[in-house]
Amino acid sequence: MKKNKVLEIICIVLVFVVYTTQSIIFRLLGYRRIEDLKIPADRTRPREQNIQMWKNFYKEFYKLPAIVIDKNNFILSGFSRYIAACELDFEFVKVTKVRSHRLRKRTRGRVRREGLVYGND
Q1: pLDDT digits (tens, 9 = 90+) for 81-118
Q2: Distance CA 85, CA 46 (A)
Q3: Which of 3, 14, 68, 86 would suit a FRET pair with 36, their CA atoms being 20 to 30 Å apart?
Q4: Rounded to an integer, what distance in angstroms lies between the CA atom of residue 63 and that of residue 59?
Q5: Cα–Cα dist 81/65, whole Å
Q6: Which residues, 6 or more positions from 39, have their beta carbon under 8 angstroms from its beta carbon?
Q7: Chain centroid to CA 105
Q8: CB 66 within 8 A of CB 79
């Protein structure tokens, strides 16, 4: 009886250690858990053609390009890749984090799109 209880506790501890170690290693390699990413409220679902294109891309090349996120884990670019990864049951996705994201900047009465500033932040 005691042996079974000890083995059960050891199994639970091992599962926890493997789960956290896997998460740490993937985080160091630039991956994030798919459930940690946040979707901005103003985003609408992309066309099914785009989602299907990324599914086909994955089936052919066995990888998806990185999803661009900000420091608060909000998706800035790659929403269709995110949905394709969700539908393909990914646990982790490759991400690129940006330091600052300024979509628009006023200059002399005109509105200009600014690029993303990439960094390790």
Answers
A1: 999 999 999 989 999 988 765 544 444 444 444 444 44
A2: 14
A3: 14
A4: 8
A5: 8
A6: 74, 75, 79, 82
A7: 27
A8: no
Nearest to 70 by CA among 91, 95, 49, 45: 95
Residue that the structure tokens 């042996």 belong to = 3
Structural domain spans, the chain: 31-118
pTM: 0.67
First-last CA distance in the chain: 51
- Contact between 17 and 11 under an 8 Å Cβ cutoff? The reply is no
Taking domain 31-118, whether its CATH number is 3.90.1530.10 is answered by yes
Which residues does 65 contact at the CB level (< 8 Å), separation at least 6? 78, 81, 94
Q: Which amino acid is at 39?
A: I
